[in-house]
Structure formats: C-alpha cells, structure tokens
Design a protein that fits this description.
The protein has 2 domains: 1-43; 51-178, Cupredoxins -  blue copper proteins (Immunoglobulin-like), CATH 2.60.40.420. It has 2 helices and 11 strands, in the order αβββββββββββα. It has helices at residues 3-40, 169-178, and strands at residues 51-52, 70-73, 79-86, 89-91, 94-98, 102-109, 114-117, 124-127, 131-138, 143-148, 161-167. The strands form 3 sheets. Strands 1, 2, 3, 4, 6 and 9 form a 6-stranded mixed sheet that branches. Strands 5-11-10 form a 3-stranded mixed sheet. It has a two-stranded antiparallel sheet with strand order 7-8. A hairpin with a 5-residue loop joins strand 2 (70-73) and strand 3 (79-86).
Length: 186
C-alpha cells in the first residue's frame, strides 16, 4: 500500500467513526428525552403525589370502609373502583366496570404488600400498607379479566385473586342508578 492509499483509508475510517459517534449521541439524546417525558407524565416511580392511609383503620371509617368498596359512577360519567387487598383476598371479590369508560382504580392493602394485576390490560400496581395506589384504565371490549395478586404475600398467595367483569355501559348505568356501589357479588 502506498502512502496515498493509507491517507484515503484514514479519511474513510474517520468518516465512518464520525457517523457512528453521531448515531451514538442521537441514541443517548433520544433516551434522555424519553426519560424526561416519562417523568413529566408521572410514568416513573416514585410518584409525585403520594396518598397515605392508616392500614389499621381502613375498615373502620373513610374511603375504604367495606360499604364503600366496589364501583361507583362519578359526576363526570367516569367510574371509580375502590378495593382492598388483604391476606388472602381482594374485596370486592368481583368488580363490575363498563366498557369504553374511564375507570380509576383506587386500592390499598390492610396488611402486607400485595399486587393488583388485571390480566390482558395495562393495570399493574403494588398495594403497600399505608399508601393508596391509583391507576386509570379504559376497557375496549366486554369480557372477564382475572385479577391475581402478583406479589408474594405468604403461604396462601396462590389463592388470592379476584375477577373484573366488563359489561355494556348502558347495563352498568342502569345497575348504578339503583345502587350507590356495585359489584358482581351482591
């Protein structure tokens, strides 16, 4: 190889290295922007807004007393579901929600860490004693979804599950017109 060939090879190598360096920098900038957007929209932990609750008194008064659990229609037409996880069950055991409606799940734990996972959806959160977990979902079709506890909570963990039944919105609203809180189990 002549010195001219070496010089030409060096120029080509520099161009390739610059290209790969630019691609690497663009990837880092893209990932940084994604992390910033996720953080702004509260898609990362820890949450900016943390609600605390006394786990020893949730059944006695307040939002998570047993008569207040289940689905309820809000003034704006959305639905709020309140639930409690405790060894080894969810209350209510069967949750009724309407299709094509904003549904806010608010849940807490009475004893240990539990996991609320609604299969075939994006609802997946931890229920930590002393804290209220909140997730928003919208179900696009009628059907049943299994809701197992996905955090190991002790020896009875494998039997801890509930059901989420998605029904027609009109049917749901007619049930909600006659009851303050509704669930599949009456």
């Amino acid at each position: 190889m002549t010195s001219e060939d070496h010089a030409a090879s060096a120029v080509v190598a520099q161009k390739i290295e610059r290209r790969w360096a630019a691609i690497s920098i663009l990837i880092v900038v893209f990932l940084t922007a994604m992390a910033a957007v996720a953080g702004i929209h509260q898609a990362t932990m820890p949450q900016a807004r943390v609600e605390i609750i006394d786990p020893e008194k949730i059944h006695l008064s307040g939002e998570f007393v047993e008569t207040n659990l289940g689905s309820a229609v809000e003034p704006d037409g959305s639905v709020t579901v309140r639930a409690v996880g405790q060894q080894y069950s969810f209350t209510p055991q069967c949750i009724l929600v309407p299709v094509d409606t904003k549904v806010t799940f608010r849940a807490t734990s009475a004893d240990v860490v539990h996991g609320l996972l609604i299969q075939q959806t994006n609802v997946n959160t931890m229920l930590v004693p002393g804290y209220v977990s909140e997730q928003v979902a919208r179900f696009s079709r009628v059907g049943d979804h299994l809701m197992p506890c996905q955090e190991f909570c002790s020896v009875g963990h494998e039997g801890m599950w509930a059901m989420v039944k998605v029904i027609d919105r009109n049917e749901f609203m007619s049930l909600a017109a006659s009851k303050r809180r509704i669930s599949c189990v009456e």
